[in-house]
Design goal:
Blueprint lengths: L8 E3 L4 H9 L9 E8 L4 E2 L2 E2 L2 E6 L1 H18 L2 E14 L3 E9 L2 H18 L2 E6 L5 E3 L5
Parallel strand pairs: 1-6
Antiparallel strand pairs: 2-7, 3-4, 5-6, 5-8, 6-7, 8-9
Length: 147
Amino acid sequence: MKPEYKNIFIHGAISAQKIAESISQHSRKTTIGGHGIFLGQVRADEKPSGKVNAIEYSAYEEMALEKAHEIREDAFAKYPLICMHIYHSLGKVEAGEICLFVFVSSKHRKAAIDACTEIVERIKKELPVWGKEIISESESSWKENNI
């Protein structure tokens, strides 16, 4: 029997309401002293063929969920974290919208910030998630992750 991993995927953009609710749910947790928060946003980059209007995200979901679980477990083993949330978009996300939300909480800020940074870097390098930049209805190209 395959293990069941926490689903990190949201179809479409990650809403400001989702982000606010996640943060709000932690306001009563009095053991938390600091949060590390990363919001990845789709840029309207200028390309030779035009401006990026959106990114269409796809993933090898089963492998991505397994890898996200591994990244999560590694972070909990390395840092004194209280909680962690990872959300990544699938499908079309318009320029200016949020496509990645990483939220890490710890007793002290340094652990939260360091863990958040490491988690984001590992997600960008290791998760089998791909983005196709949409320039127009007939123009698109696969995005390369830049660090």
